[in-house]
Backbone:
């Protein structure tokens, strides 16, 4: 259950476009909170709330040096989501492979010449 709630919080964090944009920006490297806030037309307080949610689910870490709070993306944070997607992808690939085999069998039955009695 703990793993599921972690996955839920991760997907919840990524469900917001502003937070996804922040994560995209952090892919290029660390940024200060004000640098992350720059492209958005929202208050700094709102940006901090977004960052708190991202930090709670483990996607980012923040560190304060003097008056500047720097935000870093945590590279392994998406591992749980990647694992979840991989498991579902594999399951559906197996199902679709079985369906393809079944359809191939049906095609073979329809295209076999019938013997006359």
Residues:
């Amino acid at each position: 259950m703990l793993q599921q709630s972690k996955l839920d919080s991760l997907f919840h964090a990524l469900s917001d476009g502003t937070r996804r944009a922040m994560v995209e920006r952090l892919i290029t490297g660390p940024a200060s909170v004000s640098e992350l806030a720059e492209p958005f037309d929202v208050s700094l307080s709102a940006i901090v709330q977004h960052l708190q949610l991202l930090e709670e689910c483990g996607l980012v870490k923040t560190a304060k040096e003097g008056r500047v709070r720097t935000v870093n993306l945590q590279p392994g944070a998406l591992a749980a989501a990647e694992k979840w997607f991989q498991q579902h992808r594999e399951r559906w690939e197996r199902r679709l492979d079985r369906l393809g085999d079944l359809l191939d069998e049906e095609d073979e039955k329809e295209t076999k010449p019938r013997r006359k009695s």
Summary: The two ends are 64 Å apart (CA to CA). The beta strands are 31-32, 60-65, 68-73. The helical segments are 2-14, 17-27, 33-37, 44-56, 79-111.
